Amino acid sequence: MKSTKTIRSVLQYRPMALGILVAAAGLTGCGGGGGGGDGAGSTTPQTGSPALPSLATYSYGNFKQIGLTPQNLPAGYANTRAYGNFNGRSLGFFRAVETYSTAQPINNATPSRFEFYDRLSNGTYELNKDLLADQNGCLHPRKALVADFNGDGRPDIFVACHGYDAAPFPGERNKVVLSQPNGTYAISDASPDTGFFHGASAADVNGDGRIDVIAVGSYDSQRVIALLNDGSGNFTRDTNEARLPKLGNRNYYSVELIDVDGDGRLDLVLGGHEWENAPTQYYANPGDFMFGSATPVTIPAVANEGVVLDFTVTGSDANRTLWVLRTSGGDGTFYQSRVVQKVNVQTLNSTLALNQRPQTWIPWIIPSVASNSRNVITSDNLADQLEITQ
Q1: Partners of 346 in the beta sheet?
Q2: What pLDDT score was predicted for residue 48?
Q3: pLDDT per residue over 137-155, tens digit each?
Q4: CA of 102: how far to CAs of 17, 168, 294, 323, 336, in Å?
């Protein structure tokens, strides 16, 4: 493949409406990883009071289809993050901060700290200590999804968690952060399922009007599971074996429900460790979210850049493009590069829009508009200094 580097320093982005958003954690574990920046913005943040449209009914729409621009995030390493009108007045920010180290035995591991922030008029964020009485989250959070999981019209958060990131890799339960009648939030287990959950995506997959979750990276033979919502934010594992493809023990860690082919239906996209028998694929939605019988479309692999982290879609028809965020894996290195693959959905023609090594990996990419009205692929974190012309 021909590699063309189109990265530029992020300068000023023009203000855009910021909706009730979702963003989430990067893949720092599954055998490797590292820090993705300290979250401190390096250029002038946006100011003003962003508009807050209604919640979408699927998590991808609540993050990557509302005009999000790079944010001046609070200092401190935290890739598990989300955005929404949590305080009932303005845009806010949620993050989960890890507090343990695998250098210490598992018995000494402490839970992550869940935090809410309010966005100030100068574009920075201030810790809101009133929304959570108990900040103790799961041990190792990986991805946060925003949607209205309990049906009260307010944004809630589903946090995919994988537990202690070293042997014996016991896994853990996912968490849900649900809005309460008094305006605060409460943390609880999302379901009884224990697994090494890395990725998740939310949508109503069984047609009952309640927003469900598909999670990936568990330790059972299915690897990807559907968690059905009872309408109150309590989840139960779906027993319909036709819902999802059978992946066996292949190492998939990233999942998204996203309209890849542009037909208005949310498709299932899966990625992980390509060199470990986990090709990057998407399954077209037949109309009822029954992906078990769908024929997968395989996205071209990228040699030595086989850790697949995130997905974004832009354009339409012949210009429909799937952007795949990657980092190194398959050549003995792990999480030591920053790579963005550009794939034409119709032809599957693949090029590298960004190929940097060595470079600090990043967890998420989003479509956005720069100050000169150019359509770009960037990060929700201003400190990542990422900008790729679409």
Answers
A1: none
A2: 44
A3: 999 999 999 999 999 999 9
A4: 40, 11, 39, 32, 20
Half-sphere CA count of 54, side-chain side, radius 13 A = 4
CA distance 234 to 210: 11
In 55-101, DSSP assigns E strands to 80-84, 92-97
Sheet of strand 224-229: strand arrangement: 199-203, 212-216, 224-229, 235-237
User: In 3-state terms, what secondary structure has residue 174?
Assistant: strand
**In 3D, which of 69, 75, 76 has the Cα closest to residue 380?**
69
Q: Is 16 helix (H, G, I), strand (E, B) or coil?
A: coil
The predicted model scores a pTM of 0.89
Burial profile 232-255: b = 16 or more Cβ within 10 angstroms, e = fewer: ebbbeebeeeebbbebeeebbbbb
Which carries the bigger pLDDT value, residue 134 or residue 371? Answer: 134
pLDDT band, very low/low/confident/very high, at 35 (cuts 50, 70, 90): very low
Q: How many whole angstroms separate alpha carbon 204 and alpha carbon 214?
A: 10
Is the pLDDT higher at 144 or at 217?
144
DSSP 190-250: EEEEEE---EEEEE-SSSSSS-EEEEE--SSSS-EEEEEE-SSS-EEE---TTSS---TT-
Scan for tokens 């035995």, then name that residue. Answer: 105
User: Could you give the 3-state DSSP secondary structure of residue 307?
Assistant: strand
Q: 82 by DSSP, 3-state: which?
A: strand
Amino acid of residue 341: Q
**8 A C-beta contact, residue 243 and residue 205:** yes
**What is the arrangement of strands in the sheet containing 296-298, beginning at the earlier edge strand?**
252-258, 267-272, 281-283, 296-298
Alpha helices by DSSP H, listed for the chain, are 61-64
Which residue, 244, 180, 172, is CA-closest to 213? 244
How far is 377 from 4, CA to CA, in rounded Å?
Answer: 15
Pair type for strands 92-97 and 366-369: unpaired
Q: What is the pLDDT of residue 221?
A: 73
Strand order in the sheet with 125-128: 80-84, 92-97, 113-119, 125-128
Q: What's the confidence (pLDDT) of residue 270? A: 98
* CA distance linking residue 187 with residue 173, whole number of Å: 12
Q: Give residues with Cβ within 8 angstroms of 277, minimum separation 6.
A: 250, 251
For the chain, the farthest-separated pair of C-alpha atoms sits apart, in whole angstroms, at 56
